[in-house]
Amino acid sequence: MSFPWANEYKPSHPFMQWMDEKLPLPRFMYNAIGAGYPVPRNLNYMWNFGVLAGFCLVIQIVTGVILAMHYAANADVAFNSTEHIMRDVNWGWLMRYAHANGASAFFVVVYTHIFRGFYYSSYKAPREMVWLLGVAIFLLMMATAFMGYVLPWGQMSFWGAKVITGLFGAIPLVGEPLQHWLLGGFSPDNAALNRFFSLHFLLPFVILGVVILHIWALHIPGSSNPTGVEIKTESDTVPFHPYYTAKDGFGLGVFLVLYCAMVFFFPNALGHPDNYIQANPMQTPAHIVPEWYFWPFYAILRAFTTDFILSAKLWGVLAMFSAILVWFFLPWLDKSPVRSGTYRPLFRKFFYVLLIDVLVLGYCGGAPAQEPYLMVSQIAAIYYFLHFLVILPIVSSIERPDPLPFSITEAVLGNDDAAAIKA
Amino acid sequence: MSQDAGTAAPAGHETEGVRRRDFINIAAVSAAGVGGIATLVPLISQMAPSADVRAESSTEIDISAIAPGQAIKAVFRKQPVFIRNLTPAEIAAAEAVDVSSLRDPQSLKDRTKEGKKNWLITMGVCTHLGCVPLGSGEGEVKGDFGGYYCPCHGSTYDTAARIRKGPAPKNLEVPEYAFSSDTIVKIG
Amino acid sequence: MIRIFSILAGLAFSFVLALSFVFEAVGTAKDGLPNTVESNFHEHPGALKLASDGLFGKFDKQQLQRGFAVYQGVCQNCHSLKFVAFRDLKALGYDDDEVKAIAKQYQVPAYNAATGEVKTQPGKPTDHFPPVVYGGKGAPPDLSLITKSRHGGAAYVHSLLLGYQNQPAELLKKFPDAKTPEGLFYNPYFANLNIAMPPPLTADGQVTYAPGNPPATKEQMAQDVSAFLVWTAEPNLAERHQKGWPVVLFLLLATVLAYMAKRNVWADKH
Fold first, then answer.
1. Predicted ipTM > 0.85
2. pTM of the full predicted structure?
3. N or C: which end of chain C has fewer CB within 10 A?
4. Structural domain tally of chain B?
């Protein structure tokens, strides 16, 4: 948008000219995701995941609004109404499986998007605001997903609601009243189910709003790229449309093949069998686990088993929330002038360790709360905090980065476009 | 997308190649369109009545307990249906009317089954604006014509449930039904 | 400044985690890894092949009817099937009259508006299978969703039904306290090894199959009822598989086209 060579919107049809004068919405779209937005020419397929995440949000909102037409948020009938959707509503099974697996797909896409950000240091200036809004979206997603999982009112729904609101009970002094306030009772029941339904319907639209801000903030400096070198000339860029619409279209196709294969052939592979048992406040399932996308954070929560000044429970809660909140500080913790991990050999090694570390944490979070998983998750959690809070600040000051290419064009073609440099 | 993609192709290529490219680009965009439209099918049809509702689109009702002169209000498709066992006097009253003088000309014979003239089965939904008329329950007002009387806007029906007075345009609707036996009637 | 603060916070979390780790490690060194009866003797369900398995799976209606016969002859004394309506049985190949006759065999609770009482009346096709009153030991679960609500699904049901046995001598030697309590039954496929349900399939021919079906051996009955319970849990499974194929194949084609279109668009930039 801020590039002088960006294509200008020139409507040819008189109606579009009229429209452009009264309400320049087509112009806005043209400049945002059309030919009017110059994008670095060297984006790799890791840059597809932003568009995919937006698509997932649309899937979730559409299927979610439909499910809400058939679902009843009452503790007596919620489970039955879910089965009614599965058995009697026309295409209801498809809507519900699309929504449940849509949540998983959304998290797969967003985790990839976040780790793309880690590797290429997408959080660095001038894109700090893009990053901060992104972390805010992720937090909203987690809240939305958690409340959505409560709605079918199965065993995992109920005990998930009880355990997660129990986390707030760890806060000194106000903990217990706060938990009762959140639930509207002493234990999850109608009041909790109804407010979770209301908020689960509301939050996706809040997410949509923050997503718009996220994209707006992105368009001010323009997209980052795999070299991390800023755009210098027109030859470094291509218009978003048709180049990246075509590339995103292909990425979307691959995503949809995988997603639909899950929905139609393995719809319950990522769910937990216990959630097909109706909620029973008198009996806890043998092994409570949240949905897979919460496992790494759940492992961190459980890793604290010893009281030290504060109770182990409070440490766990603090650490779990800190594990995400620390992402907010990344732009100021990693001060290396080089962005891309490709040119930062030491940083890159630690990045891969982090990737494995989070996978290990995820595995431990889904495993039963016993040895050896606890000890493994303790080691992994130590690395997690050291990585962001200690290693990144130190590495960024001692590391000697590899030489950067002069420009994006040079990185792509091996030499620069002579005409472009003159220009 | 296809058009821009076509112009983005560098000049100097053989026309054959350009044509092939255009074809692929158009095909890709068309596939996206077809997929998008196909997706609308489940999104729209999910709002149609679900299987449990459709299963209740016909109802069997036991009429053995209805004595002559009595009526019951049964449920059919979540709406009231009146089942009335007419007395000979009521039948005579209905048959005495000159059909051509009616707003919605129908004889009692038209509105009942062969040989079951005493069983008047109609929807309990006023044809004016959908209220439930009185007259099926014991002690309810039956109106000036001894049939049904709608309290909302004063439509009055006779003993064959034909509209005689008031704003309703049509006689009370006779649903599709059949006698499974002498005591069981299947509506719908 | 922010970095000094962050390093201190990171070290604090790490220190408490390390402390937890040390205590855990000492505890584990003393007690060893968890070693319970369940971790030693619980068995995972054996393999079970059903027509509904796999990407092309659909139901074998004959088998579902046999499985329904087993449910009626054996399971339904204690287990309800509340999410299934009689009308759903048409999917098993019964016609309208047969469904009506099946529904009539059951007494379904009905509210009588005239008397204000809840009485039972013979079921109609639109009714669901009625609740089952059970006064014995344990709490027999509703079976509608059983194959979706247990790890292992149908294979679990199949193995559990045939898995009753005497407690191994080795178990009692290793865990002398773990003797199966009075009134429970040892079954290594059950999560805690001791199940309240008495062995349901006791003899071949316990259920009479209609002519033209394989003999009702215990193995056959266990397979058939497992297949039936896959259907009760997921009546749309066959439709889902059948609709999934065209969708995925269409998407594959569209993706190939999208890839070729993408190559066309980028032809001059690489």
1. yes
2. 0.91
3. N
4. 2
